[in-house]
Amino acid sequence: MSAKGQELAMTPWFITLLLCILLVLGLTFQSTTSRASFFIPILSIAYWTVS
Questions:
Q1: Average model confidence (pLDDT) for the chain?
Q2: Are 51 and 2 within 8 A, CB to CB?
Q3: CA 35, 21, 51 angle in degrees (round to 5)?
Q4: Mutual orientation of helices 12-28 and 32-50 as an angle, nearest 10°?
Q5: CB–CB of 18/42 below 8 Å?
Q6: Is the pTM of this model over 0.85?
Q7: Residue 50 dihedral angles phi and psi, to the nearest 5°
Q8: What are the boundaries of each domain within the chain?
């Protein structure tokens, strides 16, 4: 696991914050295009952070 992953593991509040942001964006941007344009980069960052 990278240092970034260990840092994330030590900050569970970051995961909660990320989930809240995803939920708000999902509810706010009902358009599939808008949703994708927000979800894809966020999920990519989350994946990069964990891996």
A1: 72
A2: yes
A3: 90
A4: 170
A5: yes
A6: no
A7: -75, -40
A8: 3-50
